[in-house]
Amino acid sequence: DSPLLHTRDARGVHTLTLNAPASFNVLGEAMLAALQEALDAVRDDASARVVVLAASGKAFCAGHNLKEMKATPELAYYQKLFAQCSRVMLSIQNLPVPVIARVQGLATAAGCQLVAQADLAVAVDVARFGVNGIDAGLFCATPSVPLVRNMAPKLAMEMLVTGEFISAQEARARGLVNRVVAAEALDAEVARLVDAVLSKPREALALGKQLFYKQREMGIEAAYQLAGQTMACNMVHPVAQEGVQAFIEKRAPQWLV
Predict the structure, then answer these.
(1) In sequence order, what are the residues at sequence separation of 6 or more whose Cβ sits closer than 8 angstroms to the Cβ of residue 23?
(2) 217 secondary structure, DSSP code
(3) Position 212 pLDDT exceeds 70
(4) CB 49 within 8 A of CB 97
(5) Contact 14/52 with Cβ under 8 angstroms?
(6) What is the pLDDT of residue 256?
């Protein structure tokens, strides 16, 4: 009777924990709906500062629920399901606060997609990552979207066409995760990232995150134009005015964070 998704909010830190360990936290319809509801709540919470995506049990997330998918072999159903999943992934990107994946175990297919879609990721040293849908005859098309935006195309394609797994250390080398630590250090490492985010002004981070993803899809001239406009808007905001004044006066900025 436990909820599929545990949610906790403390100091503006929203921790969303996938809670279906017996099924390796698969992204079935109900789990996706729970995630979407939680992400929408964060979006509407002006006091939110950061999201931590976590999971219970041995696996972080084993991707889509293949048994549930096989039970309804209809194109319209699959189109609706993948649209639902894509909405969740886009919601992560569109949040005005950073999202950190806390990866305590295996992340496969759409589970690996969830890690790739997060803004930051910390993994235990025994975690493994794969987009292995091809082993079941299903190319991981939607996971490929954030995957190729995290790592070099040929490295992403190798994972997609072979279904082979990579270690946490290799995931870090390829740009899929930021930090790799021993299991006993995972929470402390995530906390360090969270504290770093909490020490910065929410308004500047929101502007920066939006710009980061928009400019990546643009040509260089359009990207510079948007980046310049973003910096100008950021500079006239009170948080930047205070931050620059504090720098000039060689003191800590007095932000309401």
Answers:
(1) 62, 65
(2) T
(3) yes
(4) yes
(5) yes
(6) 59
β-bridge partners, 121: 101
CA 118/CA 89 separation, integer angstroms: 8
**What are the start-end ranges of the H helices in the chain?**
29-43, 66-70, 75-94, 110-117, 141-147, 153-162, 168-174, 186-198, 202-216, 220-236, 238-248
First CA to last CA distance, the chain:
37
191: its two tokens: 């906390």
b/e per residue, 162-196, with b = 16+ CB within 10 A? ebebbebebbbebebbbbbbeeeebeebbeebbee
d(CA 134, CA 181): 29
- Which residue type sits at 92? I
- The pLDDT of residue 161 is 97
Task: Please state, in angstroms and rounded to a whole number, the distance separating the CA atoms of residues 59 and 116.
Answer: 16
Instruction: State residue 1's pLDDT score.
Output: 56
Helices 220-236 and 202-216 pack at an angle, to 10 degrees, of 170
Q: Which residue in 54, 147, 62, 150 sits closest to 104, CA to CA?
A: 54
pLDDT digit string (tens) for 43-83? Answer: 999 999 999 999 999 999 999 999 999 999 999 999 999 99
In the sheet that holds 59-61, the strands lie side by side as 59-61, 106-108, 128-130, 166-167
DSSP letter string, 43-112: HT-TT--EEEEEE-SSEEE--B-HHHHHTS--HHHHHHHHHHHHHHHHHHHHSSS-EEEEE-SEEETHHH
